[in-house]
Amino acid sequence: MSTERARRDERPATTDGRPVNGADPVLVEIVEGTLASVEMEVETAIARTARSPMIRDAHDFRAGIHDVRLRKLTGRSYSALVQPIVRDFPIAEMRPGDVFFHNDVYLSEGGIGHLPDLCVTVPVFHDGQVVAFVQAFGHHDDIGGAVPGSMPSNARSVFEEGLMVPPIKLWDEGVPNRAALTIMTRNSRMPDSLAGDLDAECSACLMGARRLGELFDRYGREAVEACFDAIISNTTETFRRELLAKIPEGTHVWEDYAEHDGVDEPRLHTQRMTLTVDHSAEVPLVIDFTGTSPQAKGPINHAGDYADGVFLKKWLAPILRNLADTPERMAELDVNEGVVPLIEMRFPEKGTLLTPIFPAPTNARTFVILRLLGVLAGVLAKATGGRMPADQETIRYTGVYGDGLDGTPYLMREVLGGGSGGRWYADGEDTIHVVPDSRNIPVEFAESRWPFRVERLGLARDSGGPGLYRGGLGYDKHLRMLRDASFMSIADRSILSCWGVNGGRAGRPFVVEIEGREMEGLVDDSPVRAGEIIRVRTTGGGGWGSPLDRDPALVAADVRDGKVSADGARDDYGVVLYGDPDDLQVDTEATETRRAGLRALLPADPAGSPFFDRGPGFPTLSGGLPYAEVDLI
């Protein structure tokens, strides 16, 4: 047994098994609550003072608190990393009022995925020494590059995607670096909102640093840092005891795919994961990405192999929470640095989707990094006999740009959510946003600011994958343009669907139509004329379990609620309905007959059937194969 493992096993523990690490348990609760409060205060300040719709209204930003050992202490959301800052600026040389900035993907140690994500970091001081860091990063409107929004769909290098800024000191002891700010705003098509957002983020993090400094002043550095150790250790032990113990030992393999990269014709870009579980090992989970496709020509790459993959460990770990005993317990489990010692990541050689070589483009890296959440969920579903949700929505950016009613240029970009996957105990959720706390842009605000009308914003009927537990529904949104404009989209799952599991069916894919013209998922500048309607339907989550086992009364309720059509009830669920639309009834005899007929069409040996349903788009890109070899149990 290693020395570190022996030390961990010998630590004293509280009555519920949590290690105390010498910290006062009451103070641990106080410190943990203070950290959460400071994080929320920072995010609230940014939301109330930022200028861009993406930050202020869509809330596509995060805050995080890290200790002086660079460990993430808060767990409500993900955040970037402090490693690139201390790599380039020694901690001993930092001073109160300093603010550091970076957005360079390849110099961020894996914490930044694409150039529109701008990150500010502020050191926290106590008795003249750095004791922690407060950080915020968010997706900003524009940082230059080939197209408005800095996300060119056919970029072939990062140089087309905008201004790259390695770690710099943006504020020096409270004095802003005006030259750096001028360079950044000069390179942006939206200079005022960029300047306002950066000012909001810097000021909010400085405020958060003062709040956190007060915590150290009140209780002392030694006591507070002991609480930090306890918070992280508690997470490590909780995940090991409550979650990882539910994964059978052995090796489990699965893969999923991005469908296009904006340059080549659509094809399967593989993201493969081999999960090895050994509960007796010091590091019980090993995730190996060998088998992942070569880096793409277009911008779907993600630079994940830096700092031993520490960002990806914290990014993927929330999927493990689905193994909790109850949904309520799942909601209680935060993800902080405590998950890092539990996971080892093994990356393939340089030059893959996850190990791209500079200057490979990365602006649509969500096609990979968000798909990895589903890959981990899929491999765990195989390992646990289906005790994981089916596939959920993945982020997409849609929007329009042009000249407003007053003739000035505008950019409207929105991150619309979609349906989450059905679970082994419940249906999926409708129109959730995979970015925590993000949201769609309010209709009233949009119509008052930009030259279009929102003529519909509702649920996309039949978009959720059929199942014993149905997948959640996506959005159905219609925009009528009042002036000529250009449409843009960075969206995955426009061919492939969110997969169903354990007999559940795939959800419907993302689709955009402009007056009957169907758009591709990656679009930079498709023209839209005044009076034309843009129809956006986002993805539905996959279904869980056979739809022929769903309670017919629940199917009838879905039809009455407009979530499933009458045709869908009959064709997908085998449920025959009659009566007025407001008072639909189940024809029990006809339903039993129809379900018997549909079951007769199923394979005679379920053991030889794929455990996942990828939808009709998969054969299109796989050369006609109905499923992948890894889909079999």
UniProtKB/TrEMBL annotation:
PANTHER family: 5-OXOPROLINASE RELATED (PTHR11365), HYPOTHETICAL 5-OXOPROLINASE (EUROFUNG)-RELATED (PTHR11365:SF23). Residues 1-13 have a biased composition (Basic and acidic residues). It comes from Streptosporangium vulgare. Residues 24-547 form the Hydantoinase B/oxoprolinase domain. InterPro entries: Hydantoinase_B (IPR003692), Oxoprolinase-like (IPR045079). This is Hydantoinase B/oxoprolinase family protein. Residues 1-22 are annotated as: Disordered.
